[in-house]
Amino acid sequence: MDFKEQVKSSVDIVRVIGEHVRLKKQGARWVGLCPFHNEKTPSFSVHADHQFFKCFGCDKKGDVFTFIQEIEGVSFFEALRLLAERNGIPIPKRDQYSDTGTKLRAGLVEIHEFAAESFRAALLSSSGATARAYLERRGVSRQAAEEFGLGLAEAGGAWLARRLQAKRYPPDLIEESKLVLRREDGSLYDRFRHRLMFPIHNEMGKIIAFGGRALADDEQPKYLNSAETPLYRKSSVLYNLHRAKSAIRKQNRAILVEGYMDVIGVYAAGVREVVASCGTSLTNDHVRAIHRHTDHIVVNFDPDTAGSNAAERSIQMLLEEGMRARILELNAGLDPDEYIREHGAGAYQQALDRAPEYFLWLADRARRRFDQRTSEGKLEMLRSLLPAVQRVSNRLERMTIANEIASYLGLAPDAVLEEFRKAAAGRRETAGMKQPAPPRVPPVERQLLLCLIKDPDSQSQLAGQLLEAPFVERLTMGRIFHTLAAIHAAHDVVTYQSLHDRLEVPDQELLSSIVLTDSMSGENYTVVLARACLDTIYASERQREISELRQRIKQAERAGEFEAIRPLAQELDRLQARRSGE
Question: Is residue 24 part of a domain?
Fold first, then answer.
């Protein structure tokens, strides 16, 4: 029997696909949501007798090898090897069962496994005392450290490079792993040095990358992640999914946290259905990977401003994918790992169970942003919630949420439903209209964006300011700037491609038009120019605030509300004095 047919006849396609897709028996076939496109109603079928699958929505179809190729992004030979290894079938040592790409990826997996073993051994050696002390302070037991394969990258500049060379791995393969880099003089040095190491696995359980946490207080960045390789794409890999997926299905929910230590702390507390993105913002691919296993998710990001903003941005993707989302913000400003250490696993379990639906969490945020004492403030608060609720596809569910929001905010249900009807009517009127022309981008925004993309100094010195700047959302390219700042905050290098990949289609087109029509040479983009652009935007923002205050003072004067004028005038004097002093 041909080896391919031997493997195919030895594996159960329902079991293999069932590790990636929740399947339900329906007559002679199994059905589920297609993992290859976004859908709300199952159109994906698996036929056990004939050993093939087909999606009637996107027309993806094939046998068990095709499925593994598509879901894992590997070649046929790699799919054949993966299935053989997982089912204990000896692989013939013949070149016909491999190709160049397969050999490259197999070599990279082997290097990552060797690196992981080296890191683990270093953690247990005398060199690992500092790292072990850090783990002890963070409440990570030796058992948890072993289960997650934690290790240590030693401080020497070429410690791993020398070990890989001693194992006689090909130099090109060593460089392709991105664990080792080459200097201009040709010498090799380690990407990770004096860091606590977290192995990152694909969904099949293979080590494909690492995250490294600095052990020295002055070492930056605090977290450093593997660069992308033929094995590893940050936008599609979730940390711990290979361990968590069975628990996610059993509990019918996933817990999404921000960091590696949060995952380990939550997992050790008995909540096994926990995952995190690998040092990058949540993407549609991440959401789809979770959705293959459950419809329910609890987002438990850090309770600071950046974490709350990230949670709010994630809601759009979760709802568009048809997920049922709840948001957990822990008391006392603690992240999940800290909360569990201070209050215990039981308290964290109770907090998870009490986590509010996403729209109630959004309502709480809206309460803090708008003045509930005025009818205008209540209306603005309601309107700020409508876009998220309107992304719910089921009409009855939308109406139920509208009534809950009305009750929660103390508003009349009829008024809330009327706002929904107006918004729905507006969508119907514009559904068939011609797409509007791309917005005109102010030159100062265009120059700032190009500086931040093309000049490393501009990125390192100024990108962080954009994440917390209150005016960013009002800029023409506000979403682009916010995404750029989030990439930088995750310690990733901002490039055109990394930024483009994280944007929605309209912003991708806007970004492309700016970069493609750029006529300036790269060397003209400097941190001096970037700072001047940012100063201009700040000045414009302050002028806008001054103009608004003057208008409010005039309105108060016309209305005879003289008590309201004094605090407005004081705030105006403060802003004008600040502008004069700059």
Answer: yes
Question: What's the domain range around 399?
Answer: 363-427
Domain boundary among 180, 208, 232: 232
List b or e across 335-368, with b for residues whose CB sees 16 or more CB atoms inside 10 angstroms. bbbbbbbebeeeebeebbeebebbbbbbbebbee
Query: What's the CATH code of the domain at 540?
Result: 1.10.860
pTM of the model: 0.67
User: Of 306, 323, 355, which residue constitutes the final position of a domain?
Assistant: 355
User: For residue 311, what are the contacts with CB-CB under 8 A and spacing of at least 6?
Assistant: 299, 301, 327, 361
Binning the chain into helix, strand and coil, the percentages to the nearest 5 are 60, 10, 30
216: DSSP letter? S
CA angle 31, 33, 38 (to 5 degrees): 155
Give the count of beta carbons closer than 10 Å to the beta carbon of residue 498.
Answer: 18
Q: Are residues 176 and 140 in the same domain?
A: yes
Place of tokens 């817990």: 255
What total number of domains does the chain contain?
5
**Kind and range of the H or E run holding 257:** strand 254-257
The DSSP secondary-structure symbol of 327 reads: E
The tokens describing 20, both together, are 């990636």
- 3-state DSSP assignment of residue 21: coil
Backbone angles phi, psi at 183, to 5 degrees: -80, 170
Each as own residue / partner, the long-range contacts of residues 164-167 (CB below 8 Å, 24 or more positions apart, any chain) are: 164/111, 164/114, 164/115, 167/114
Token pair, residue 115, equals 């690196």
The enclosing domain of 295 has a CATH number of 3.40.1360.10
User: Using one digit for the tens of pLDDT, what is the confidence trace for 181-225?
Assistant: 998 888 999 999 999 999 999 988 999 999 999 998 888 889 999
Return phi, psi of residue 54, to 5°.
-155, 140
Residues 216 and 126 grouped into a single domain: yes
The CA distance from 294 to 324, in Å, is: 9
Token representation of residue 297: 């998710």
Q: What is the pLDDT of residues 316-372, one digit of tens each?
A: 889 888 889 999 999 878 999 999 999 999 999 999 999 999 988 988 888 888 887
Residue with tokens 């970004």: 511
